[in-house]
Write the structure tokens for this entry.
Amino acid sequence: DVKVTQSSRYLVKRTGEKVFLECVQDMDHENMFWYRQDPGLGLRLIYFSYDVKMKEKGDIPEGYSVSREKKERFSLILESASTNQTSMYLCASSLRTASYEQYFGPGTRLTVT
Amino acid sequence: QKEVEQNSGPLSVPEGAIASLNCTYSDRGSQSFFWYRQYSGKSPELIMFIYSNGDKEDGRFTAQLNKASQYVSLLIRDSQPSDSATYLCAVGHWATDSWGKLQFGAGTQVVVTP
């Protein structure tokens, strides 16, 4: 079974703090993704990575950065958290094959006050 | 902009009946199609994927794909209260530069009533 874990289920941070969200997968997947999910807006892709040290912007990268130093680990960084970054953050991973099915972690519900 | 459209619902289904969910997509080059189930407050869980035209069955779930009409559907037979969730349709394109990205629909909420 694919297992994707995320560092926290719930997180509360103050405006202006630097926030690190970590995602780890144990299935040797090449591709990893960060999404945020908000009511009425669905899943929106923030960043993705197709290999170690490789990253690509998704649809809403502003205010975020990422790091992938090891194949199994993909970190999302909020450089200076703002209240409009309060959201559910979901990490996913997939193999670099024709199938491309993505497997999600449990999510981190981040509240920025 | 590649789009994936779903009715938001809620789709109310009596227990034991068939729930029918539809999804249309705009990118004619799409090649992989996925259905995810998401319970409230939880993350999406993959339940079905389909690549070829026709039907694919897995337990009480059947995915149907019609590439000519650009739609994919999900049937849930013998619906149970535990099937109450939001169902997300996702579509992928196997282009070299797609890097496995999927386009997600906004989801259809299904409510199974006892």
Summary: Chain B has a mean pLDDT of 93. Chain B touches chain A at residues 31-32, 34, 36, 42-46, 49, 51, 88, 90, 92, 94, 99-102, 104-107 (CB under 8 Å). Chain B has no helices and eleven strands.
